[in-house]
């Protein structure tokens, strides 16, 4: 599905936003279940979601890996020569082991998340990036602990009862590697990585297996924590025009307390303890620059953070493995949001 296909002037009304939030809670929730919880007809839910998906505004995909895989991942900050940012951003986005890529405001820094083995990581850090004349500096932060990631973020248009009613059953998280995968499992996960809302029948036809087998396999994968989803939509369409990365210095004795507190904040869509000069990184959505100021002063201020570097995302290039078109709705909406924030 091409995320550049949508009308850039599309505006999501309250029901659309509530539908997006329902899919943030459970990306594979059925239309009937969503309709019952939100108090609308199944036909309305089906029509609205079809429009959002076919227009390219909304895409639901399986998260690239289980949450535990974030530990050991790299958060890259790549400084580039002016005018070369798109080349570097696209090269990183083309990698299957890089699920997130952003261009920072100012056009001279690219941020990326790298999930790879040591060999691929070292080849990227010590060979490919240094050999690229456009790259002037690379900083790599290893994730030591994940308090929250993008798959857990909720935009806040559902109340607690609605979210609880939509939430899939909670299962104990297994140890890494505890759920062995065969060829059929991997084929199903690959299909869900493209579209997590495919029906059992569609998946069965795609992988050439009986529908009953597909149902059993998906139940097993869900129990293994492997069916977490990410709802990809441009934040300005949900009333959040500013996306920022906050690199924070926190006293070591308060790191867990602060990380946990930020993970529960509705504007925060990622919190990680990291190596490097800053020991905590948080990503946050705000309605405008004034909202970001209020978050920094009102939310971060009382937490005892000793230093905060605020880096605003200028353009999202890839989210949860989905490459966004530079001319598409995400960036058109972001440009409108930035103009609104500056006005």
Automatic annotation (TrEMBL):
Entry keyword set: DNA-binding, Transcription, Transcription regulation
Residue ranges the record marks as coiled coil: none
Domain HTH asnC-type: 181-241
PROSITE patterns: HTH_ASNC_2 (PS50956)
Segment forming the signal sequence: none
Annotated protein name in UniProt: AsnC family transcriptional regulator
The species this protein was found in: Kitasatospora aburaviensis
